Amino acid sequence: MSNTRRNIDQYWKKNIQIVSILLFFWFLASFGFGIIFADNLDEISFFGFKLGFWFAQQGSILIFVAIIFIYIRSMKKLDQEFKEDIDE
Amino acid sequence: MSVQSLTYLFVGISFSLYIFIAIKSRAGSTNEFYIAGKGVHPVANGMATAADWMSAASFISMAGLISFMGRDGAVYLMGWTGGYVLLALLLAPYLRKFGQYTVPDFIGTRYYSTTARVVAVICLIIVSFTYVAGQMRGVGIVFSRFLEVEIEIGVIIGMGIVFFYAVLGGMKGITYTQVAQYCVLIFAYLVPAIFISILITGNPVPQFGFGDRLIDQDIYLLEKLDLIMTDIGFEPYTSGLKERIDVFCITAALMLGTAGLPHVIVRFFTVPDVASARRSAGYALIFIAILYTTAPAVSSFARYNLLESTHDISYEQAPQWFKNWEDIGLIAWRDKNNDGLIQHAEGNAFDPVKPKYDDSIGEFGERIITNNSQVKSNNEVYIDRDIMVLANPEIAELPPWVIALVAAGALAAALSTAAGLLLVISASVSHDLIKKTLATDITEKRELFYARFSVLIAVIIAGLFGIYPPGFVAQVVAFAFGLAAATLFPALLLGIFTKAINKEGAISGMIAGLIFTLGYIVYFKFMHPELNSSSNWLWGISPEGIGTIGMLINILVSIVVTSMTKKTPDEIRNLVDQIRQP
Question: What ipTM does the predicted assembly reach?
Fold first, then answer.
């Protein structure tokens, strides 16, 4: 029982880790590149866009999609590890 | 065939399709009625979520708003998509694991309190009704412009269709009609966008055309647009006007609010397991991103077309669409400087903003309005933001079937969202208020009857909002997000990620968030609209963005009150452990 308890806590800890890292990139792509650093990024030209403008109106959305799919894959892996530990 | 008969044809076909699907997927139990028997495939649920989420506002209004806001329009783009990251990472999998019927169900159980459940129901109803009113209005506008029936009749037809498939099929019927509605609306959005992108830049992908060179000139579209706008005296399209802190807070409020919207959350209850809930959030965002990355491209094309085809042009030579939309009151022009030409400029043209016509015709054939001229602005034109998408096919001179398609798509967007909202409202009444609070001993059959009956009541109220819109409806819709961000989102988040927050904490947090946010909005929007400017706002944050502060207050109050009251019981701590496991 205590073994399972430890596994559950470990699973949760790893889960929090994955979520925190991904939320950091979520914040960086939108609030970071799209708002806070947008003026500096606007100096850079990117396929006919100012880069900060592109992040605000296109890039952030694409990064959001990528973040969710990375999350789906990481959690799938974590779920499998966790299942094996419980079965042992 | 004329535009009008084509529109009847397209709308007729799409409506028959929705009814056919509803008859095929009738719900027989409360489980099917509330959450479609938990049997929806993640991809189908992704599409249904996308249709559920993308409302008349996304389809009709958003590109037009961005068109006039330029850079600042990004708050909607980031705000309404970024929320899905929060939903996928912080809420959807855990709420699916919990596996009940409604959002108040989770709050009531996790905070072991009927009061918490009822407070959640109140927040849910305020949020959902403000939202649904806008949808019914959207249905009315489309009917009156494209089918030339009275707005009232349009609303009643829309109500009838939604009522039919929501009552018959519940969540099951709604899910599969939403899948069909997604296909209709995305096709209807992309076709004109692709046409226009080709016309302006020669690039068939609007997302790339957005950053491409103009077809007959060696200059990028956005550069040219910036030039045209600076010439006229506007800020460049790609620079923002809003304060950074306000942009930050509005974006955050829209994201947090999106993640806290009950009709979106409940879609994740309909899939078979936790992994499917995660996957369907991913698919949902892909389906949404297709429209949301196209919209800003459409905005820039539309602004370019608008200025190119009407600025410094005489009224007689102005294109036909300018007069068509003037006829139904969504465009107005007054020749302020008596040069016979139409001029756009920064600021509202008239006071009050919306035109009031006096049924007479001016020397150029324009409709005379009785508004005062806004002295501070040289702008001569009022343009309703909503027409930028609806008129786009006409502005770009696209074939009639494209115009008909846009009408069918706008209706699909409005109806799918209305149906989803009405279902969560009725579920929270029949399940949370009746079954779980007032009459706990009723049978399932009886509960199902109440569920269907509440849909009827909700449809009627929503329809009345559409027919007799209280003046404030359009403004209020945007605030549904702030309210969801300040009430439901923190309660759900804290319920999953902490074991400590207890019922006293959660209830006082939700109430504090609700009162603060609602109070701030009502103060600036309804009591003292004359004070509604950044110098009077709290830290320069507009009422649109205040939900972010409301959320922080909610969390703070929850923590403080929790620390002064009794610990959460052990069985609740176990419950939290359970929902954290896949």
Answer: 0.88
